[in-house]
Write a structure and sequence with these properties.
250 residues; alpha/beta; Rossmann fold; 6-stranded parallel sheet; 6 strands; 14% strand; globular
Amino acid sequence: MLAAGVHGEDMNIQGQGALITGASRGLGRALAEALALRGARVAMVAREGGPLHDAVATIRARGGVAHAIVGDIGAKDAIHRIAGQAQGLLGEISIAIHNASTLGPTPLRLLLDTECEDLATVLETNLVGPFRLTRILAGAMALRGAGVIVHISSDAAIEPYPRWGAYGASKAAQDHLSRILAAELADTGVRILAVDPGEMDTAMHAPGESHFELLQAFARRGVLEHALELATTSGLSSHELGDACLILRS
């Protein structure tokens, strides 16, 4: 088991397997880089091969271990291939981060103007796809008695933003899915966390006071519902979120 300080200086996840979806750019790429920097072997999933292979090459150039898996998390017939390829490349998956998501067609529409098919597509990518992947990975984690599954959430899960109906509904459902999974897996050693990273590292939204120490304490105590409540009301930077994913292994 791992021990770590508030900012993760002493963490050791050397050689552990981590799967990150939506990993070709943005937060997913930042998390993959942070995990690889700490010694994890990462499998990075994204739909577009070009940016994904560029992200993998960056990690490898820094001495990290990274693999590209091109696939669409919202496609039912792709899930077993993605999971199988990741397990073939990494062996055991200790950390899974569900970061891939879609807003749906843009410009965003009022909910009553949203096509049923567009709502279904958003739900497949943001909710059903991650659930399918979790079903494959969580069983092995439970048998080993350890594992972390992270859902990247959004304040749209709790705030009724006009024109964000499909996305907000998908994230609200994902948050509650996380709560239920956490309750059902409470005695298995598998930890579930939904994290709203907020507006990260932008000029418009300077990071406020960090709640990472409190999040760490909650995570160590295994009180996942409190960690979820805290995370969905705090603006964590990508680095803090990466540390949060790691601290749950302690």
